[in-house]
Design brief:
CATH topology of the largest domain in chain A: Rossmann fold
CATH class of the largest domain in chain A: Alpha Beta
Distance between the termini of chain A: 28 Å
Helix content of chain A: 25-40%
Radius of gyration of chain B: 19 Å
CATH superfamily of the largest domain in chain A: P-loop containing nucleotide triphosphate hydrolases
Largest interface: A-B, 34 and 27 residues
Strand content of chain B: under 5%
Strand content of chain A: 25-35%
Number of strands of chain A: 14
Distance between the termini of chain B: 25 Å
Oligomer: heterodimer
Strand order of the largest sheet of chain B: 1-2
Strand order of the largest sheet of chain A: 6-7-8-3-9-10
Structural class of chain A: alpha/beta
Structural class of chain B: mainly alpha
Largest sheet of chain A: 6 strands, mixed
Shape of chain A: elongated
Number of strands of chain B: 2
Shape of chain B: globular
Order of helices and strands of chain B: HHEEHHHHHHHH
CATH architecture of the largest domain in chain A: 3-Layer(aba) Sandwich
């Protein structure tokens, strides 16, 4: 699919000298959901702000739907809807008014039926005449999304949409994002909840220290970097790993009650058969076996701390 | 020009005004009435006439200017500072609109509000004193230009201000003294010669003088000079705003 957003070597150095973006390049295809994952201060919000025109880039370029976001900002910005991280709404205005305001601000003629549709989709229609100050935190977040959708954007930026939101509302948000994707909207969301990226993203980008460490299909990333672990639970606990099992690099867990074996699920030989044979030969009795896959979170922690793979290795495709 | 966006900002700003309509309406009426009681009746009865004009009527142009200037600054500075403070300025910065359109919306609304208040004060004043306007067109021109230029200045203050104290700082420390010392309640010919010269450095003198001329046909300084002063001030404000938006000063990191 064609790229709807293309970012080339984007750099941003703030006046104080802080380098928030160190040459980010990224292409985003129309209709996909990209999750930008990164710790606080990684540059996620700066990246979004620079694309949307709230912050000016020090160098590099951004093209939105083929329009440069500086020289052709009217065309570029008209395609973008932005949901900011903080709840920034005027407390005294009414829901319907503030959503209609957003549409007008983007130069679109008033369209009450469209605004109604957006409000209904976000379960806000019953609250249309409520003042912002009377809404719950979750409702306010929905209003922010409604405002961003009021001018029918083709790209939606969600900056930490579920930060500080309870589990139920988070699931609601994910459902909303899926519906928007079904409507053909391209979605870029930032998050530091791995669970979120895992649940809804098509692709995952990992950003830290102003650099994009990698961007990859979520499934691929997990398959490529995902390790599996086999936990061998023993009928009787052991104090040390028998010498005959030393080649398997096992870890003792549960106070000796279990042995943990880490392997690459995609490798030709996982080594499980040999391991289980060796365990039996060592005279250990199995109580149970369990396997588990590493989550995106494990991968992410590994990446950011630099422990799992180096940047070069990640880009090169070796795990 | 994205006129839909300009109209949207304008309407939203005016909506804030209508929400507090009673305050917006009552406070100028009340303060004008108080000025008339104090200056018009209590003190005015001892002064009687200035330059052949009854003192009660003489202070009307100055009184209108005083309110219009302070209202323009506070409306416009608050109008743009509020979204900065709340954070919803992100929406304006990321919308497909340029700076001119933002200024037109915010400043247009602020100027409209102060024009409304100026008119209310004039109407209230006419209840207390006989008011004749010798040059109605000039009167309207001075009033509109003052609303516009000081709304522009208020907009600059709102962009500059980093907190609510700073928002009040310029109006309190600079504008109010200039307005009070700008001949709002007296003719500068009443001052000692040295002060007459010093006072000519106060830009408000030119505004009040020109505005008073529109009413009574007499002025402290030539009318053309007054017009040039207000025109120059407007252009200076436009220039500063153009620079702000070009550099993104205090709004775009």
């Amino acid at each position: 699919m064609a790229a709807i957003l293309s970012i080339r070597d984007l750099r941003k150095t703030y006046d104080g000298g802080f380098q928030a973006l160190k040459g980010v390049s990224l292409e985003i295809a129309e209709g996909e959901i990209l999750a930008l994952l990164g710790p606080n201060g990684a540059g996620k919000t700066t990246l979004i702000s620079t694309i949307c025109g709230i912050t000016t880039a020090t160098s590099g370029s951004v093209s939105v739907g083929g329009f440069d976001n500086v020289s052709q900002f009217r065309h570029a910005r008209a395609l973008i809807g932005l949901v900011p991280q903080e709840i920034t709404l005027e407390p005294f205005t009414k829901v319907l008014d503030t959503v209609s305001f957003s549409r007008g601000l983007f130069g679109k003629p008033a369209d009450p039926s469209l605004v109604e549709e957006v409000l209904r989709k976000l379960s806000l229609w019953d609250k249309r005449d409520s003042r912002i100050m009377d809404l719950s935190g979750g409702m306010k977040r929905r209003v922010l999304i409604a405002k961003a959708l009021a001018h029918e954007p083709r790209i939606l930026f969600l900056d930490e949409p579920t930060a500080g939101v309870d589990v139920e509302l988070r699931k609601d948000m994910w459902e909303i994002v899926r519906e928007l994707k079904a409507d053909g909207v391209t979605i870029i969301l930032t998050t530091h909840y791995i669970e979120e990226a895992e649940a809804i993203a098509d692709r995952v980008g990992v950003i830290t220290g102003g650099e994009l460490l990698l961007v990859e299909e979520k499934e691929q990333l997990m398959a490529r970097m995902g390790q599996k672990q086999l936990e061998v639970q023993l009928a009787a606990p052991v104090e040390a790993i028998p010498e005959t099992l030393s080649q398997h690099n096992l870890q003792i867990v549960n106070g000796g009650g279990a042995l943990l074996y880490t392997y690459d699920a995609r490798a030709e030989r996982t080594g499980i058969t040999t391991l289980l044979n060796d365990v039996a030969q060592a005279g250990l009795v199995l109580a149970d076996v369990q396997t588990r896959e590493s989550s995106l979170e494990d991968i992410f922690v590994g990446l950011v701390s630099g422990g799992l793979v180096s940047k070069g290795a990640a880009a090169g495709g070796a795990a | 020009m994205n006129w839909t966006a300009v109209a949207t900002i304008y309407k939203a700003e005016m909506a804030r005004f209508w929400r507090t309509f009673l305050q917006s309406f009552i406070s100028p009426v009340l303060s004008t009435s108080l000025y008339f009681v104090v200056f018009g009746s209590a003190i005015g009865s001892r002064i009687q006439e200035v330059d052949g004009v009854e003192y009660g009527a003489f202070i009307v142009p100055g009184l209108v200017m005083l309110s219009v200037i302070t209202q323009s600054i506070s409306n416009a500075s608050f109008g743009i500072y509020f979204p900065k403070f709340i954070g919803n300025i992100y929406e304006i910065l990321s919308a497909p609109i340029n700076f001119l359109e933002v200024v037109a919306g915010f400043v247009g609304a602020a100027a409209t509000k102060s024009l409304f208040i100026g008119t209310v004060i004039l109407c209230t004043a006419s209840l207390f004193v006989d008011l004749s306007v010798q040059h109605p067109l000039a009167m309207v021109a001075f009033l509109v230009l003052t609303c516009l230029s000081f709304s522009l200045m208020g907009f600059i203050i709102g962009i500059w201000a980093g907190n609510f104290e700073q928002l009040q700082l310029v109006p309190l420390l600079v504008v109010t003294p200039l307005v009070f010392l700008g001949g709002s309640f007296y003719s500068i010919s009443m001052l000692p010669p040295v002060w007459q010269t010093i006072t000519l450095f106060n830009p408000v003198v030119y505004l009040v003088s020109g505005f008073r001329w529109a009413f009574f046909g007499q002025a402290d300084v030539p009318v053309l000079l007054s017009l040039c002063a207000i025109g120059g001030f407007t252009l200076a404000c436009v220039g500063v705003i153009w620079w702000i938006f070009k550099t993104g000063w205090r709004i775009r990191a």
